[in-house]
Amino acid sequence: MGLSTTLSAAPRKVGSSNFAKRLRCSGRLPAVCYGEGGESQAIEFNYNDVKKAFLGDPGNRSLFTVAVEGGESFPALVKDLQIHPVSRKMLHVDFLKIDPGKKVTVKVPLTLFGKALGVERGGQILQSEREITVSGLPADIPSSISADVSGLNLGQTMHLSQVELPDTLTLVKVVDLPVAVVNVPKGLKAEAEASAAAEAASAKAAAPAKAAAPAKAAKPEKSKSDKKK
Question: How far apart are CA 182 and CA 170, in angstroms?
Answer without folding.
Answer: 26
